TrEMBL record:
It comes from Prauserella isguenensis. InterPro entries: T7SS_ABC-Transporter. This is ABC-2 type transport system permease protein. The chain crosses the membrane at residues 32-53, 65-91, 112-139, 145-169, 176-195, 238-259. Keywords: Membrane, Transmembrane, Transmembrane helix. Its main location: membrane.
């Protein structure tokens, strides 16, 4: 007697979803340009600006300047990764990959879960590589603070998944996603990531999307205290940092919803 089986059941299982995630993760990792900007460039920036300067060992909060710099550049690398992954996923859907998947047993929800898992994994890569570089150079923080900054850095990259998705939904072009990741350089500068800001630039920077996630990732190290070229420069209360992160997350998420609704209406 033959037992009827559902050919879709096995494909919907965790094994095949896990295999799809692993294959797509390897595909993105093999993308030399993507890996360079997400992993190699942030690591090089840290080794130059955070580990080799005369002031790298100077104290900041419960650590030193090298750790302060490492956290910010890791936030930049993680945001680059999620922006690139989400933007590429949106382009894949718009360019027909979604229709191809509809012919298989993989539901659309599983595709979203897979892309989310890959985005988090790609965001974790520069964070882990940079923190390893910090361990083997001059970065210094208590172990508990170190673990907290790693977790907050990875979590802080999630708003930029919405940012990348919004760009991908707006423009059917890989160049647009590339421009979106390039814009992160300017946003990171204004976000107090690459060098200490003060005065008008700091006042402007507090309203930019990278400022909140960088300040949040640094919070276990500095407790909100700001650093300038001349030393301490005031502090950011936690509520203000969280408000920045929440506000920009909502802005990017609403943009995604509106752009998706526009795309559906056009059909």
């Amino acid at each position: 007697m033959t037992v009827a089986t559902n050919p879709r059941a096995h494909v919907r299982g965790g094994y095949d979803l896990g295999r799809y995630i692993a294959m797509d993760f390897r595909r993105n990792l093999r993308n030399v340009g993507n890996s360079f900007f997400v992993i190699v460039l942030p690591t090089a920036l840290f080794l130059f600006f955070g580990a080799s300067m005369d002031w790298s060992g100077e104290p900041v909060g419960v650590g030193n300047v090298s750790a302060w710099t490492m956290i910010a550049i890791a936030s930049y690398g993680a945001a680059m990764a999620t922006t690139s992954m989400a933007g590429s996923a949106a382009l894949e859907i718009q360019q027909g990959w979604g229709r191809q998947l509809a012919l298989t047993a993989m539901p659309h929800g599983a595709f979203i879960v897979a892309k989310a898992a890959i985005a988090v994994a790609m965001a974790a890569l520069p964070v882990l590589v940079l923190n390893l570089a910090g361990v083997f150079t001059v970065a210094d923080m208590p172990p508990g603070v170190w673990l907290a900054t790693v977790a907050l850095t990875i979590a802080g990259s999630l708003p930029f998944a919405f940012y990348g998705l919004a760009i991908g939904l707006s423009f059917r072009s890989d160049a647009a996603v590339g421009a979106a990741t390039g814009l992160l350089v300017i946003l990171s500068f204004l976000g107090n990531a690459f060098m200490p800001l003060d005065g008008v630039l700091l006042d402007i920077g507090r309203f930019t999307p990278m400022y909140g996630i960088v300040a949040l990732a640094r919070y276990p190290l500095t407790d909100g205290d700001l650093v300038s070229m001349g030393g301490a420069a005031g502090s950011d209360p936690l509520w203000m940092v969280l408000t920045n992160v929440a506000a920009w997350t909502v802005v990017f998420a609403v943009a995604c919803l509106l752009l998706q609704r526009r795309r559906t209406t056009r059909r």
